């Protein structure tokens, strides 16, 4: 009897907690100002685009995303390194009034393509996966638009043939649109 009562109580608490939650799905795109930590490299301007989901409880949210992201760097005008990733950031968002938020979380990347400035395949020189951390700020507007500024810094060394440590560094500016929302 005690176990049944405890189970019912926990179920009711869970229902109450989830009734305060909202779930949103949307799309987003924006600019990447990407670079690597290779000495003398300069940033390139590229893009990212994809989809996100948001589960929000009161002033906390979890936002997983799936993004196509062009990254890389310009190696002192001598050559470019162009990297195409599918990135999966999972951001924890802390909300302030009016939809303003701070966000942080890990990002997992899978390398799709790697080329130098001449179009030569250099994928064998770059590891197939990338682990990064991201921090940023944003605004979720009440009419479905959202704006984000985020810095993503590489944690893993992606060198697999360059002979020097290669870590991605990307500043992102994004605009998103919430396609639908369920809940509060």
Short précis:
This protein has 184 residues and is mainly beta. Helices cover 10% and strands 65% of the residues.
What does this structure look like?
The protein is mainly beta and 184 residues long. It has a single domain, classed as Porin (Beta Barrel). Helices cover 10% and strands 65% of the residues. The chain has one helix and nine strands. The chain has an eight-stranded antiparallel beta barrel with strand order 1-3-4-5-6-7-8-9. β4 and β5 form a beta hairpin. The longest helix is centred in the N-terminal third of the chain and has 18 residues, at 2-19. The chain is elongated. The mean pLDDT is 90.
Compute the number of helices.
1
| Proportion of residues in β-strands | over 45%
Q: Could you please say which CATH topology applies here?
A: Porin
Gap from first CA to last CA:
35 Å
The class by helix and strand makeup works out as: mainly beta
Query: What is the mean predicted local confidence, pLDDT?
Result: 90
Radius of gyration: 20 Å
What overall form do the CA principal axes indicate? elongated
Which blocks of ≥5 consecutive residues have pLDDT under 50?
A: none
Biggest sheet strand line-up: 1-3-4-5-6-7-8-9
Number of domains: 1
**At the first level of CATH, what is the class?**
Mainly Beta
Biggest sheet statistics = 8 strands, antiparallel, barrel
CATH architecture group name? Beta Barrel
Order of helices and strands: HEEEEEEEEE
Instruction: Determine the fraction of residues in helical runs and give it as a percent range.
Output: under 10%
- Give the beta-strand count: 9
